[in-house]
Design brief:
alpha+beta; five-stranded mixed beta sheet; globular; 596 residues
């Protein structure tokens, strides 16, 4: 997978000294460690090298090694050994996803490297810190570090470091959609890698070049580079790069409608990704095969492949959302620490100037106190904003996860399987088309804060059509929009009604045992939009405790979303649950937001 491989290459560039881990090298280092017990620089170097070889295979077990290296270096006052050991410890934290801990250790190592004038180590740490800023999507700061790294590598005549710097700069440009600049830097890095005869770097850079040309829609050139990367990766035995490139070849051939080639490369990629247990790339391989089977009219095989893609991709997306939430939390902590540090520096500066003021000491203290108070107040306000933004991010992530829960996906796929087993191909095909359309629309809208009322109601109608099929048409519904509302110009938060419709279907109508009905009404109420979801189900009074707990989760998430909108828009949106003699009425008040 091109985008995933980009991250692998970024991590590889963390290690400028010892290259790629091999079991024979690790065994040899461990034997040397066992025979050399003296607490000296030789043991420190062995500990650091051994930890480096274990970085990808067993990073947790490598921590005691670098801690011992740090302790010995500190006891013997060997600053160079301590700085290199700290850098290796930062590498371990980074590979395990603890970027904040990695940044702290890298900065300590950088301070020591500066104290002894080790320019090469300083340069590599610039790159590593740049990687963390890139992960946090602080692209300007990442680019600043990479360019400083490039300048240092060129001054020192260190070609491998120059290759890494150019490659990382290219990744930043590609991430920010500046593909021409990205291609230019990758081509420079590729030329130098070939001169150095470093096949791993050549394969990695070639694969990223192919990705850039794919983004530029230059598919023939993208295919050419992907094939070169796959062939070279196969030659050097790197199955990660080979599987990534083969998947990408399959995807590009689907775009070009070369389905036979897409199937061939998709199957090869699947075999390799299963062998190395790369879940994300397995998901991509199944996606390629699903589209090939669908084009060939083999609907049962297409369905099986798509189910495998959804199953694997669901776990990948879940991890990505967790990583995104962690990234936002880390960014908040870093901003808070930075603000506090800057505030402390300013405070000390003001105090120092106060002592030097002399005759106007009292006046300067008064002015300084006022500005200090104002800055502290502003810092507190800034902290509150950051905390609120973190809450927004967390709530939005929860809402996204709740919008399309895995039970609905797999129940729907099982329904399709049931239709096929009963030879009801027409019904299965109709259901699959609707389900694919709904899933695609939800994913497209997942990052949007507002969509048009027309789009949202179309999604709700499609959702209810699918549920009606699953309930064997024991569900009726109606959607009414007042004439003074323009659905294509009125904006609403995406999927804001879905939790209440789902509750009505599964906790109100389904237990009823006969045909139920849901009425959705949209009205204008002053400067607010009133959305009503009303059903004739069993109601909350007769619902089980388990049902109430499940239904309350969606209400809680939606309530949090509305509270955030109220805070941002300074409005009074609300949710009211009204019990009826038969069923439940939900009234959602939203601020009236217009597109034009």
């Amino acid at each position: 997978m091109p985008d995933s491989f980009k991250k692998i290459f970024l991590v590889l560039l963390l290690f400028p000294l010892w290259g790629i881990s091999q079991q024979s090298v690790l065994d040899s280092l461990q034997q040397e460690l066992a025979t050399h017990s003296a607490k000296d620089s030789v043991r420190v170097s062995l500990l650091i090298k051994t930890a480096g070889e274990m970085t990808y295979s067993n990073p947790k077990e490598a921590f005691p090694l670098v801690d011992e290296a740090i302790a010995i270096s500190s006891e013997t006052d060997w600053i160079k050994g301590e700085s290199y050991a700290l850098r290796q410890k930062g590498n371990l934290h980074y590979v395990m996803g603890d970027d904040l801990a990695a940044l702290d250790v890298y900065q300590k190592a950088q301070h020591l490297a500066e104290s002894i004038g080790d320019r090469s180590l300083e340069a590599s740490l610039l790159s590593n810190i740049g990687n963390i800023f890139a992960d946090l999507k602080q692209y300007d700061r990442a680019l600043e570090n990479y360019e400083a790294y490039l300048t240092s590598a060129q001054k020192l005549g260190n070609v491998p470091d120059e290759i890494k710097a150019l490659s990382n700069i290219a990744i930043i440009y590609n991430d920010t959609k500046k593909y021409e600049e990205g291609v230019a830097n990758l081509e420079k890095a590729l030329k130098l890698s070939k001169q150095e005869e470093n096949d791993l770097f050549v394969a990695a850079i070639t694969n990223n070049l192919a990705l850039a040309y794919k983004k530029l829609e230059d598919y023939p050139k993208a295919l050419l580079y992907y094939q070169e990367a796959a062939d070279l990766a196969h030659q050097i035995g790197n199955k990660y790069i080979e599987a990534s490139a083969l998947n990408s070849i399959g995807m590009v051939n689907i775009i070009l409608k070369n389905y036979d080639l897409a199937a061939l490369n998709g199957r090869k990629a699947l075999d390799l990704s299963q062998e190395i247990e790369a879940v994300e790339w397995q998901a991509d391989s199944w996606k390629v095969l699903s589209e090939v089977y669908e084009h060939e009219g083999e609907m049962a095989e297409a369905l099986h492949a798509y189910k495998e893609h959804v199953r694997l991709q669901d776990s990948v997306l879940s991890e990505e959302k967790k990583s995104e939430l962690t990234r936002k939390e880390m960014q908040f902590k870093m901003e808070r620490q930075q603000a506090e540090a800057e505030e402390e520096i300013k405070r000390q500066h003001l105090v120092k100037n106060g002592y030097l003021a002399g005759a106007i000491l009292l006046a300067l203290i008064s002015i300084a106190s006022y500005f200090l108070y104002k800055r502290r107040r502003d810092a507190l306000e800034k902290r509150k904003v950051v905390e609120f933004n973190a809450k927004v991010a967390e709530t939005e992530l929860k809402a996204l996860r709740s919008q399309m829960n895995p039970h609905f996906i797999f129940n729907s796929l099982n329904s399709i399987s049931d239709f096929i087993s009963r030879n009801d191909i027409k019904q299965a095909d109709e259901y699959l088309v609707k389900f694919s359309k709904l899933t695609r629309a939800i994913l497209e809208n997942s990052e949007k804060k507002w969509i048009t009322l027309e789009e949202d109601l179309e999604l709700m109608e499609l959702y209810m059509q699918l549920e009606a099929i699953r309930l064997e048409n024991h569900l009726e519904y109606s959607i009414t929009v007042d004439e003074d509302i323009e659905p294509d110009n009125t904006l609403v938060p995406p999927m804001i009604l879905q939790p209440f419709i789902e509750n009505s279907i599964w906790h109100g109508i389904a237990p009823k045992g006969n045909t139920g009905k849901i009425d959705i009404t949209i009205k204008k109420k002053g400067d607010m939009l009133l959305c009503v979801v009303e059903d004739n189900g069993i109601g909350r009074a007769t619902a089980s405790m388990d049902t109430k707990e499940k239904s309350s989760l969606g209400v809680k998430i939606t309530t949090n979303r509305i509270e955030i909108i109220n805070h941002i828009k300074n409005t009074e949106g609300s949710i009211d649950l009204i019990d009826k003699k038969e069923g439940l009425r939900v009234e959602i008040n939203l601020p009236l937001e217009l597109q034009f």
